[in-house]
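Fill-in record for Lipoprotein.
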Amino acid sequence: MTVLFRVCAALLAVVAGVAVLTACGSDDTTSDRAGVELPADFPSGDVPLVDGALLDATGKDGTWRVTVQAGAADGNALVNATKKLTDDGFVESSRTGDTANQTVTLSRAVDGGTLWVNVGISADASSGPSTVFYQVAKTK
């Protein structure tokens, strides 16, 4: 439970930080997605991200944070992000928050370990509820 609390706390810190800052980035030259590049060791083959521009992507050695600006016309960004993960084999273990600020925790076994993903939205984010925050951790 302590690990879950730490991951949720980290996600909330990211949400608060993005609410204060505006994101900007250059075109990603290694993919067809606009924005910043994912860290080289991000498990992009194992963690499907919602469609949209990458506003922020940091981390290494088994822990990453990614912020995606989903299309406002694409519907509920959290529902879309969660569906992409569950369609890829992730299992939802919890949901927290209210209508404006929500976090979903999911996990999936991969390569002898477990990938934990907290995905969330916040109405306080600079682009409102279409900004999706990912906190990804790989445990053995």
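KEY FINDING: The CA atoms of residues 76 and 99 lie 11 Å apart.
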